[in-house]
């Protein structure tokens, strides 16, 4: 009697079928497709269409009637004194709001980086201005900077300074608008700086302390060099925000012209005035593209400066 070993069933092929292999290749693109679809619909298409409209004379009442102008809308901007005024106001308000904002944020982050009681409360309180509505914050500041009954003028009167017309004066109105931006964004940037400070190795501070460096010298020689990429990021983001500033100057007095003499009209307000005040959609599109190119220029300059600085440090 002979025994035969039972035949083993053939092992199933581990190679996936063609449909599964195709899905494995396509699935990563399917997962990211919603983002690119939304970006193309609400980001890329408006950008390209705005560039297209900027080459035509288009009025809001008759958007279907388009007259070819080429670069006429751009040359008209160069000859418009209000465009240059809004550009100068944007730069001035940007400097008045960005520089104090980042300096104060850096100082607050340095204080919160030490062990303090109630650190969680202070960190949460830092974000409250950022979470506040732009409209609510601007309306409150408009009352604070009132000429006759404003709290700011009342405090100035206590030290012998006469009432300041914060809504009519050029410098005064720009300082008032900038203070709203500073109040809203200082805490946000402070938390960004705080996160950057906590990523700096603690051994560097211990070595500096052993060498006899005070806290002030540690801040300048350890903290600031370690925060250089973070500072560059906040400078770029704050510059972009200053270029696009719209809500604060619009609601400060409720005028799209930025005051009686356009004294605090930014590029965002100028765009809104041309497009929805004077119904010149073609010129408004040209202003939007000028703002876009200005942002690219600022970001490019910051990138070049950062790259040169990193090369110099690498060559030391």
TrEMBL record:
Coiled coil: none annotated. Keywords: Cell membrane, Membrane, Transmembrane, Transmembrane helix, Transport. CDD domains: TM_PBP2. Gene3D superfamilies: MetI-like (1.10.3720.10). Signal peptide: none annotated. It is found in: Cell membrane. It comes from the Bacteria. It holds the Pfam family BPD_transp_1. The chain crosses the membrane at residues 29-56, 91-112, 124-145, 286-306. Residues 87-302 form the ABC transmembrane type-1 domain. It is a multi-pass membrane protein. PANTHER family: ABC TRANSPORTER PERMEASE PROTEIN, INNER MEMBRANE ABC TRANSPORTER PERMEASE PROTEIN YCJO. Belongs to the binding-protein-dependent transport system permease family. This is Sugar ABC transporter permease. It comes from Streptomyces roseicoloratus. The lineage of its organism: Bacteria, Bacillati, Actinomycetota, Actinomycetes, Kitasatosporales.
